[in-house]
Design goal:
single chain, 352 residues, alpha/beta, D-Maltodextrin-Binding Protein, domain 2, 2 domains, 8-stranded mixed beta sheet, 3-stranded mixed beta sheet, 14 helices, elongated
Length: 352
């Protein structure tokens, strides 16, 4: 590898680290300034999957009371868990359930905050029908074994569709991303080869393709590259008008992601107790369940030594799970079912 390339990569890594450091420093300064003004700024960090929703929540919540404000930093799911586990910030956000160790050592809980669906997006000019994918087919594509859009495995699932003889250009998310975790969770349940070679992880070692840093970058990259395929939260595909495929669910039905089919997956997994806050929703039973559904969680500490800050956080959480839910649908996400909201509010009341 040429020295210039090495220097460029090293510079990119340093720039990324510097960005993270600067955002955290800025958040700390904002908090200090707010305290000086006898107000509190609650700082969260984590996934970019729900970023449009968190931006809307920030705008709306900050109108309510100048004494309590919030800020959200899209640093990735793994970084969000790392920050809250180390006592940095007031909450994290992402699509990876906490481990037993993280819950115990960090005194943390995860609360579902919204429902999401991860969809395969693609760029195939001239193909006007929604393509159909099985989990096994997607696994073979992202493992690099299915390389052409007119491969027999794709043709077999899409009779009557004229597929171009184009190479498949895989686009994936880099390490530490919640969408990686949800996507690999689904692929590991539907493909034994994927489960053995890659497994479930927010940082999978993808064998083929090119990375896209954020959800918005993934959408931009697929939209700009003929023959490309990637995966992104439904909201981004709809907002950017990018075609996305139907997915074969365990009931043998090809299902298109929508608020209705994502909620169906949640209901199938949570009924009747409605208290499995860290449940996996991928490949949920039911004819109408979209199989790459998931919770997006917030991660919070269950206790605080600062009563004012604790009260402010509880106020924010209660708003998330009451008035804040109406903005989920407005921003293209699926709000939580009422039965689950009741149980979550009970959990919030135990924070002390």
């Amino acid at each position: 590898m040429q020295p210039s390339v090495l220097r460029t990569r090293a510079y990119s890594r340093r720039a990324g680290s510097t960005f993270v450091l600067l955002t955290l420093v800025l958040a700390a300064l904002l908090s200090q300034l707010a305290l000086a003004l006898e107000s509190i700024v609650l700082v969260g960090s984590g996934s970019s999957v729900p970023l449009p929703l968190f931006r809307k929540w920030t705008s709306e919540y900050n109108k309510r009371n100048p004494a309590i404000q919030m800020q959200y930093l899209p640093l990735g799911t793994s970084e969000g868990i790392k920050q809250i586990s180390h006592g940095v910030g007031d909450f994290g956000a992402g699509e990876v359930p906490l481990t037993t160790k993280e819950r115990g050592e960090g005194n943390l809980i995860e609360l579902p905050v919204v429902l999401i669906g991860i969809v395969p997006i693609y760029n195939l000019p001239g193909v006007t029908r929604d393509l159909k994918f099985s989990g096994d087919l997607l696994a073979e594509i992202f493992l690099g074994h299915v390389k052409s859009w007119n491969a027999p495995q794709i043709v077999r699932l899409n009779p009557g569709v004229t597929l171009p003889n184009l190479p498949i250009k895989v686009v994936y998310r880099p390490g530490g991303k919640g969408s990686n975790y949800v996507f690999t969770d689904f692929l590991s349940k539907t493909s034994s080869r994927f489960r053995e070679e890659i497994g479930v992880s927010p940082s999978p070692k993808w064998p083929a393709g090119a990375p896209a840093e954020r959800s918005s970058d993934m959408a931009d990259k697929v939209r700009g590259e003929t023959g490309s395929i990637g995966y992104v939260e439904l909201q981004y595909a709809v907002a950017e008008k990018i075609p996305y495929g139907l997915i074969l669910n365990p009931a043998g039905k090809f299902v298109k992601a929508s608020s209705t089919t994502i909620t169906a997956a949640c209901r199938a997994a949570e009924t009747p107790q409605w208290d499995k806050f860290s449940a996996s929703l991928t490949n949920a039973p039911g004819a109408d369940s979209f199989p790459i559904s998931s919770f997006s969680w917030i991660y919070v500490r269950t206790s605080s030594s600062d009563p004012r800050r604790k009260d402010a956080l509880v106020d924010l959480l209660n708003w998330f799970f009451s008035n804040g839910q109406q903005f989920s649908a407005q921003e293209g996400y699926s709000p939580l079912p009422r039965e689950l909201l009741v149980k979550i509010k009970t959990q919030i009341s135990s924070i002390h």
